[in-house]
């Protein structure tokens, strides 16, 4: 069976079959890379990657921001984390249910990610994706002109604080993103370094547009998310164990969907580092 790419019924995304990611050759990887740039989201069913295989595949796209991390409500001992506002990992999981882009709160935004499903609930727990290229293209001309001239700060402290999560130094959460540095300042519109397409840089980590009243800034940023994250610019993936997904973090937002947290959900995330020359940011002055 040869590699096949079937576009989704959305402005982006495709399902890729006929390939085993742990065994791809250079020609297959080239086809996958080109498809990734075109579609931004690639879904690979029934891969059942080991952690080492997942890391090896992700590293083919560049250096790593981090090799692999569990995104899960299951502790290392197999017990479930309590859903009672006492667990900082659960607070992060719930925060991630808002539309966001990975690592915009870091000095260098991530290039992309590989995400795999190991244990999934029978209902809920989908992952949503939204196309910020198509969202920018669909903006009215006057809004394009407005946002082209604006930037916003990005902070995990800010986004988690909005849901009542004040990070503690002794937290069980590793602290990634709670790095004590100044918030990142990023333009609301960016040009993709490989495709040249413009996209919006928005999501839950964004706030405080310089020169704008805080309330006005909040309304504009929320209005942009509301406009951007609707059909045909969204896709929600219903996971099956063994699924692997690759997405381009430079032009998509994503979010986790709620599920009954008395049920286990075990996913693994490998984050591909961005190029500091194209994914870097300014600082608070």
Layout of helices and strands:
Blueprint: E1 4-7, E2 14-17, H1 26-39, E3 41-44, H2 51-59, E4 64-72, H3 88-95, E5 112-119, E6 127-131, H4 132-138, H5 141-148, E7 151-154, H6 156-161, E8 184-187, E9 189-191, E10 198-200, E11 206-207, H7 214-228, E12 234-237, E13 244-248, E14 252-256, E15 266-272, H8 276-279, E16 282-283
Parallel strand pairs: 2-3
Antiparallel strand pairs: 1-2, 3-13, 4-15, 5-13, 5-15, 6-12, 6-14, 7-8, 7-11, 8-16, 9-10
What does this structure look like?
This protein starts with a strand and ends with a strand. Helix content is 25%, strand content 26%. It contains eight helices and 16 strands. By secondary structure, the chain is an alpha+beta fold. It has one domain (4-283): 4-Layer Sandwich (Double-stranded beta-helix), CATH 3.60.130.10. The strands form four sheets. Strands 1-2-3-13-5-15-4 form a seven-stranded mixed sheet, with helices on both faces. The protein has a four-stranded antiparallel sheet with strand order 11-7-8-16. Strands 12-6-14 form a three-stranded antiparallel sheet. The mean pLDDT is 94. Helix 1 (26-39) links the parallel strand 2 and strand 3.
């Amino acid at each position: 069976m040869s590699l096949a790419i079937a576009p989704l019924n959305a402005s982006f995304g495709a399902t890729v079959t006929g390939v085993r990611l742990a065994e791809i050759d250079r020609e297959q990887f080239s086809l996958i890379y080109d498809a990734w740039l075109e579609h931004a989201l690639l879904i690979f069913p029934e891969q059942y990657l080991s952690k080492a295989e997942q890391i090896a595949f992700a590293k083919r796209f560049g250096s790593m921001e981090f090799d692999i991390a569990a995104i899960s409500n299951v502790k290392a001992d197999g017990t479930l984390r309590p859903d009672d506002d006492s667990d900082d990992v659960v607070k992060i999981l719930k925060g991630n249910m808002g539309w966001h882009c990975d690592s915009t709160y870091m000095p260098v935004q991530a290039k992309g990610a590989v995400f795999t499903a190991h244990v999934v609930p029978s209902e809920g727990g989908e992952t949503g994706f939204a196309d910020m290229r198509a969202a920018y293209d669909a903006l009215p001309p006057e809004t394009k002109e407005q946002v082209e001239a604006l930037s916003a700060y990005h902070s995990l402290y800010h986004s988690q604080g909005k849901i009542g999560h004040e990070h503690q130094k002794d937290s069980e959460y590793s602290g990634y993103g709670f790095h004590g540095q100044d918030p990142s300042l990023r333009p609301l519109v960016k040009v993709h370094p490989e495709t040249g397409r413009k996209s919006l840089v928005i999501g839950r980590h964004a706030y405080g547009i310089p020169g704008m009243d805080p309330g006005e800034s909040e309304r504009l940023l929320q209005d942009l998310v509301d406009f951007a994250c609707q059909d045909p610019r969204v896709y929600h993936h219903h996971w099956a164990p063994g699924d692997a997904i690759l997405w381009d973090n430079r032009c998509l937002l994503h979010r986790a969907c709620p599920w009954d947290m008395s049920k286990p959900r075990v996913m693994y995330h490998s984050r591909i580092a961005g190029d500091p020359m194209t994914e870097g940011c300014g600082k608070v002055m």
